[in-house]
Amino acid sequence: MPFISDTLSRVKPSPTIAMTAKAAELKAAGRDVIGLSAGEPDFDTPQNIKDAAVAAIAAGKTKYTAPDGIPELKQAICAKLSRENGLDYTPAQVSVGAGGKQTLYNALMATLNDGDEVIIPAPYWVSYPDMVLLAGGTPVVAETSLQTNFKLTADQLEAAITPKTKWFIFNSPSNPTGAGYSREELKELTDVLLRHPHVWVMSDDMYEHLAYDGFEFSTPAQIEPALYERTLTCNGVSKAYAMTGWRIGYAAGPVELISAMRKIQSQSTSNPCTISQWAAVEALNGTQDFLAPNNEMFVRRRDLVVSMLSAIDGITCPTPEGAFYVYPSIAALMGKTTPKGTVIVDDQTFANALLDEADVAVVFGAAFGLSPNFRVSYATSDKALVEACTRIQTFCAALT
């Protein structure tokens, strides 16, 4: 009898975490590696948020809380969703988890049965399909393309829906492409979903505040109120508030679903870190003044990376509307050979060779379900980005 569960054989470790760990290992060994693989802002957590955490410790707010969040944080989340998204929820409709990943996972575990299908547009965040598999569901990948700026069309969504479809996972702005859906594009998708009342929507809004060039963020239940009762609106404080390590994510949806998610969390992690919860209260209720200047820096970095990568013969790099990633195509580099003799047969070979021969860590496109591409995170310093892109330029120029 095997000791390890058969379920675990269906999934793989996160490629983004694996590449980041490999880069860190090489750097610790003395290599001058520049990491562009982690989806983590290089900004420090704002001081008012850190102060709120310190105040919580000083006040002795360090005990267990309700499994899915303190009332004060749930109230702050409800206020945020009303203020910024025009969505009215009560605290009973809110679940707080140890990061956005946990809330998504809890929802899938609470709802999926064998044979249930989940539509996932590709390229996708690496964890979506594996979380579906762990929960016993079947990922149905709907591939987008560079021609549609990596956005799913209404016809593609319609074609992917079957009687077995339970969820449609939606992410805008996107990880890994940074693509953002306009209100009109999102309305086309919600019109399809209205015709299929058995399909629920899981909207991952984690990059909501990282939107550029006048792009206006919208979330599905905001665009189509008729979907409110079958939408789980998910978000968190990790990205825009530079709080990745604090591990606070949240979701809002129907009471029955939130209650089921609470049951799972009560038997797994129980409550998220109490101190982090109080910090998140301040993040949502406190000043938002740092968001605009941070976004200005991200726009500058985005434009820098897009410009330098687009100058490379064989790379096509679209300009994203949000998040802090670019997702260049390397279709024209397939079949070329590196100075060390490695033939670029796919994007994983490209990424591995780039790390080995140029000391730049990126994530290969196959990890996100669409090749041949690679993902660059530009959430690091201008100096590091210039040096990394220069190395990529030199590496690609040497291909034969």
In the CATH hierarchy, the third-tier topology of the largest domain is known as: Aspartate Aminotransferase, domain 2
Can you tell me the CATH architecture of the largest domain? Answer: 3-Layer(aba) Sandwich
Helix content: 25-40%
Can you give the mean pLDDT?
96
What percent strand?
5-15%
| Helix/strand order | HEHHEHEHEHEHEHEEHHHEHEEEH
Count of discrete domains: 2
> Rg to the nearest angstrom?
21 Å
Quick one: biggest sheet? 7 strands, mixed
In terms of structural class, how would the helical and strand content be classed? alpha/beta
Query: Judging from the principal axes of the Cα atoms, what is the shape?
Result: globular
Biggest sheet strand line-up: 2-8-7-6-5-3-4
What's the level 1 CATH class of the largest domain?
Alpha Beta
- Total count of helical runs of at least 4 residues: 13
Organism: Parasedimentitalea marina
Enzyme class: transferase
Subunit structure: Homodimer.
Catalytic activity: L-aspartate + 2-oxoglutarate = oxaloacetate + L-glutamate
